[in-house]
Automatic annotation (TrEMBL):
Keywords: Leucine-rich repeat, Repeat. It comes from Chenopodium quinoa (Quinoa). SMART domains: LRR_TYP. InterPro entries: Leu-rich_rpt, Leu-rich_rpt_typical-subtyp, LRR_dom_sf. The gene is LOC110722521. PANTHER family: LEUCINE-RICH REPEAT-CONTAINING PROTEIN 57, OS09G0267800 PROTEIN. This is Uncharacterized protein. SUPFAM superfamilies: L domain-like.
Amino acid sequence: MSTTGARDQYVWSLMRKKWILVCSRGISPSGQLCLKGDPGPWIENNPASLLLVQCLELDFANNDVEGEIADSIRELSRLTHLYICFCTILKCLPNAITRLHNLKVLQVECCIKLEELPANISLLESLRHLSLSSCFRLNSVSSITGLHNLQKLDLRHCYNLTELPADLGDELLELFYIDIQGTAIKCLPGSITKLWNLRFLLLPWSFRLETLPYDLNESIVVAFADMHIRKTWNALRKEIAPLSFPLLGAEAAHNQCNCSYERIACPSIVFPWGYLQLKGDPGPWIHCHYDSHSLVRFLDLDLSCDTDHISESIGELAELTHLYIYNSSYLEHLPKKIAMLQKLELLSVQYCDVELPPDLNQLVSLRHLSLAANGVEPIIYGLEKLSNLETLNLQGSFNSLTELPINFDKLVSLRHLSLGYCEIKSLPVSITKLSNLTTLYLYECPSLKALLENSSFRRLKLKNCSIMTLPTGLCHLEILHFKDFCEEKTACDIQEQFLDHLINLETLSITCYRIKFLPSIARLRNLQELRLKDCFSLKELPANLDELIGLCILDISGTRIKSLPYSITKLNNLQCLILPKCFRLESLPSNMNSSVRVFVDNTDDTYYENLGYYDCLTSAKASTEGN
């Protein structure tokens, strides 16, 4: 699309999202060329201008011609950026692009029939950024492992993609950013631990966190699709510590080095974790891979293909520790021989209206149970026999979960309880007898407005909840509001009476993009950590910060705060200060404690753009400009 004034001609750039000035041949002063469809005709008609093109945009939207890219594209030898979008019939990128040896950025978006990449894409030795977002049929990216200089990999919304190359971490040592949100990937290859430069890892909502290796680089920032959570792996693994993580210790490392033959014999298993993902009944796989039974630790069963049973042969997987079963409207019961899985530690049944086996209590190693279904309420009344259970996650569906059983106190070992998508109005009094219960996680519980004062838990996480009465004994509080949750309200400010009585609070974390004002928290004198990460509308902190005499960590990354109150200088115990990109470093008080470690958050602005924050607030550019 173009527009012409008296002397200037402008075209719309999808990549830059603005109008750009171009000359008569359609090239901008910076070497950008925006075309509709195949570049072949332009290349043929402008041979003298080929060396001027450094950035090429190909927009196939509303294009009447076939979505082909001429081999003559290789003649653009100085091309550094190539952007292809809305090409609805392209199944594979043309081999000709592998001749673009100066190409640094390749972005392919919304090419919905793209299934594969050129086998020799590794010839793009200069490539730093590869984006294949919303290429729904893409099923493999195995050829990317030859791109040794690749730093950023974006595979968002490639719904058909189920795995990353096993040798990803062996070959792509420069990777610092991986985005697999909206994919079907649920487990990463073991080589991920070798990516020492990896800084950002964005995961799909269905990813199995338990499969992440405990000894993954602890500084990696992990985020989840549609959940607006951004935490370092060091912080996240502490939060979900009850779950069993694979650890690359001596035994696992030995197995990783000696699993080459096993990987060839059974390529469907992700090594070294022993993760196996199957569609439908696992019976046929178990029958055909007898020699591989002992290799399977994690079994992920997608029953969305109208599966109505699970074979009793599942009991032969004697080494199984984690079992996930989900997406079946036909499955009525679990196999009886599931009770033979004596090493099973975690059982997750999601969106299957099934009956649990009566002898589930024979699973002596079972510590973690997750249930989500339309009819979850009748199921939970048989849980009192699971006296060894430590973690319980209950999700309703269509508000089917309205209450917990009165005898909930029978779960004497319970340490962590999660309740989601339910219409529970109050928790049973018996929950106060669970002396081992330390953590309560509530999400999407709109009818629950108050918690019992004498509850034993000390850690509370609230996601999209509006609970206003909290127990005084809380030590750790995290409040998370999604963008959609905030948009339903005229304001999303945390009220002072909601916080000021929590005198035992040691850590307070709030993530809410609409919050504009944080009231006085001066009474929270035991507070050691204050994290306001991604409170995108927050522009200032309370003036009386000096009342927080024990504060050690202050994290305001992802806010719009540009300066701090002078009272920051009186925080003698402050050790770590994490600032947003827009912060004016020159405004830091000169007499602030010199021992404070100051960090500036380097989260890419595209993270917030993908969340839609910039659609509702000022642009990133405006937010970083001085007043």
